[in-house]
Specification:
The chain has 365 residues and is α/β, with parallel strands linked by helices. Helices cover 27% and strands 26% of the residues. It folds into 2 domains: 198 residues, Medium-chain alcohol dehydrogenases, catalytic domain (Quinone Oxidoreductase, Chain A, domain 1); 136 residues, Rossmann fold. Helix 4 runs parallel beside helix 5.
């Protein structure tokens, strides 16, 4: 079938909106008419080849839409269902069997490899093969093929165009707090970098009962929104020593910190801002090979550093929970979102990188 998609054709070059041919779904696949897709930092660093997904490729991994057709083996969803598309895991390894889907050994290949697990590609233009199946979806397009494993059925009484970012960025930030760090009610947390991922962590920290919630960022507009969404304090590192300020606000250091920027110097600050026996979660996706250094004594005194993939989320469970929190008014994800037509994807990308927009979402209409 013919679709319209945004293609990343060369490293660090603008996306090109083009007509493509998309195969029909295989027995375990789901064809989804995309309504809206979030633009995530990961899409942009893959376009810029921080990770070696082969180009040309259709990216996009925060899609939401309506099921159009399903393969003969699919039982999870049916045509007409509203779905959010998320990351893909194999479903067979010990990690997947234990519910740790983000730590599947096949995660990188399935999500960044440019094709299906068997190496096949479903996208073409005039005979040219276009890489796809990005995060098992490639949803910078009017239609996407997903696997049954990475579609999440959601309630149909919530605006579908808002829900795509739940598939990656929002579930990553919120899940890092709710599923990974498990902060105690009454504890303190500092979030380094409050883009859409960090802002989701701020909202989640309020949900779970943290009483000192510190947003750390150099952009004043982000700090203002963080205050609105649950931060009790804000720290701008451009205006002074962020670690010392956090220690002052918390009486010695935060119980928990999150690092979302992927900057080694900021990661070190997030560790140094911990209280003794505190836990720092690393979310930020740095270029492969990026290294960081710490004073070993920072860690010796009971501090813990742990990496977090996709917020330790089981998407079929966690995404509907976040939607319920949104409906209750306790997780106002709509305050992060600004809409753009697919044809303006390059403006959306620029606005995301510059900080003008917290979470761009492409509308496919």
């Amino acid at each position: 079938m013919q679709i319209t998609a945004a293609v990343a054709r060369a490293k660090s070059q603008p996306f090109s909106v083009e007509p493509l041919e998309l195969e029909e779904p295989r027995p375990d696949e789901v064809l989804v008419r995309i309504v809206g897709t979030g633009v995530c930092h990961t899409d942009l660093i893959v376009r810029d080849q921080y990770y070696p997904t082969p180009l040309p490729a259709v990216l996009g991994h925060e899609g939401a839409g309506v099921v159009e057709r399903v393969g003969e083996q699919v039982t999870k969803v049916q045509p007409g269902d509203h779905v959010v598309l998320t990351y893909l895991s194999c479903g067979r390894c010990p990690a997947c069997q234990q519910g740790a889907l983000g730590y599947c050994p096949q995660l990188f290949t399935l999500n960044f490899g440019g094709g299906r697990a068997d190496g096949s590609r479903a996208l073409r233009r005039d005979g040219e093969v276009i890489n796809g199946h990005f995060f098992g979806q490639s949803s910078f397009a009017t239609y996407a093929l997903a696997n049954e494993r990475n579609v999440v059925k959601v309630r149909s009484d919530v605006p579908l165009e808002l829900l795509g970012p739940l598939g990656c960025g929002i579930q990553t930030g919120a899940g890092a707090v709710i599923n990974s760090l498990h902060p105690r009610a009454g504890s303190s947390i500092a979030v380094f970098g409050v883009g859409s991922v960090g802002m989701s962590a701020i909202m989640a920290a309020r949900v779970v009962g943290c009483i000192t919630i510190i947003a750390v960022d150099v952009k004043s507009n982000r700090l203002e929104l963080a205050r609105e969404l649950g931060a009790t304090h804000t720290v701008n590192p451009a205006e002074g020593n962020a670690v010392e300020r956090i220690q002052q606000l918390t009486g010695g250091g935060a119980n928990y910190t999150l690092e979302t920027t992927a900057l080694p110097a900021v990661f070190r600050q997030a560790v140094e801002a911990l209280a003794l026996r505190g836990v720092c979660g690393l979310i930020g996706a740095a270029p492969l090979g990026t290294e960081v250094t710490f004073d070993m004594n920072s860690i010796l005194f009971g501090r813990t550093i742990r990496g977090i993939i996709e917020g330790d989320s089981v998407p079929d469970v966690f995404i509907p929970q976040l939607i319920e929190l949104y409906v209750q008014g306790r997780f106002p994800l709509d305050k992060l979102i600004r809409f753009y037509p697919l044809q303006e994807i390059n403006r959306a990308a620029e606005d995301s990188l510059s900080g003008v927009t917290m979470k761009p979402v492409l509308r496919m209409s």
